[in-house]
Amino acid sequence: MTAQNAGRSIQQRLLPAVLFLKACADALLAVPDLNAVWENGLIKKDGIHIGFVVSLKGGGIMLPAIHDVDKKSLDEIMASLNDLIPRARALKLRSSELSDSTITMTYLGEGGADKVFGIIYPPQVAIIGIGDMLKETIFADGKEQEHTFAYVTLAGDHRATDGLTGSKFLAAFNKLLQNPETL
Known about the structure:
30% of the residues lie in helices and 24% in strands. The chain is globular. By secondary structure, it is an alpha+beta fold. The relative contact order is 0.19. The chain has a 5-stranded mixed beta sheet.
């Protein structure tokens, strides 16, 4: 994240959610079985439209879709978030922004909880949950190093997917986040 934000003003800096969304989209390109809906059977989708959970000030959530995330740059994803989040909180989203997500991501940000276990939003077949960013000290190459990480969970509809597919997706997601400069 630091490399992507180097030289940017505070207003132009990317949030961690942007990297998570892009890594999710790219992981879905590698494991397309989770980019689907269940409507009397599995229907794989071509467009990667990620539903992003937005908490509302008075309680509850909205789930706007960020369309074609795989085709967007990090800056375009950030612009989408900057557009959708305030409109979601003002309850001013278009119906198309609420109805065509192919997968959901919930990211707690700095909410204080280190894990989140999401509930699948039908007809989608999966939801990714990302907890708060944590720091821990590890020992590598004989040196003490600070390491930043987040717990990532995945829930899948077992009518449409299985643990092996979920494991492949999470491995691809992790690999992408280990090399954020490639996003």
